[in-house]
Amino acid sequence: MNAMKWAGLGPRVLRYGGLIVMFGALPAAAPAQERPSFVTYNHHMEEPGNLEVGVNPVFGTQRGGGSFLGSWLELEYGVKGWWTMEVYLDGQATRGQGSAFTGFRWENRWRPLMLEHKVNPVIYLEYASINEADKTMREVVGHDVEAEHAEPLAHTREEHEHELEAKLILSSNVMGWNVAHNWIAEKNLAKGAWEFGYAVAATRPFTLAATSRRCTLCAENFSGGVEVYGGLGDTDSFGFRDTSHYLAPFVAWSLPGGTTLRLSPTFGLNGNSHRFLLRFGIAREVPVGRGGR
Fold it and tell me: Which residues of 243-255 are buried (b: 16+ CB within 10 A; e: fewer)?
């Protein structure tokens, strides 16, 4: 590996490492509620009055361009039992091209039915101010394909966009499993058509029986599953043509004190997809207010 090509990565890696070390100094909270999947949302909301701080890097291979490390810093706050708000700060580093801050996102999720139902709907709305260099891939919509990520960073960082994204989240708990389906619609507020995508996940704890003792490696602290997600074209060309799709098993480990670690190797399912992505994340919950129902 050419060390000079990766020079831009060094400072960012150190910053991520510093954030991870910072987590150990945060006060303990209730067990973390971070969902195990990276792309698919379920109906579980952040606890009212809790702030969750997370770092979520994604490493990707790139045909026709340099491998990259994208990441987002996540600040999630439980405003009410039915309302969760998040702010994301995105950045990336590409081999041989350097690194860049790519923008921010402001997300809100509302759960209209607080009691548990067979199907639990959640309404999601997000505003994003980002540039074309963003490689976090928090969702895949429209005709998002691997080739777009091969464009030089020097060009894409100058192309700024304001986007509105909406999701209908449908989530059910069945025999220990959580099954969630997200319908996604995204629009560049300046121009272009509505773009569509989907994400589906099935998640289950390693065991449903909790032990009476405090432990770190107990099966009850682990959960895992698989998600599938991809684009569905746009209003001009709806469907699977010229779209990308991914299969991603995942596992999450909830540590005592409110910290969650997540890992997800991700595999492209067609020629338009990245062949391989590796997502990993660390999050910690911190009580900062009383919140409310």
Answer: bbbbebebebbbe
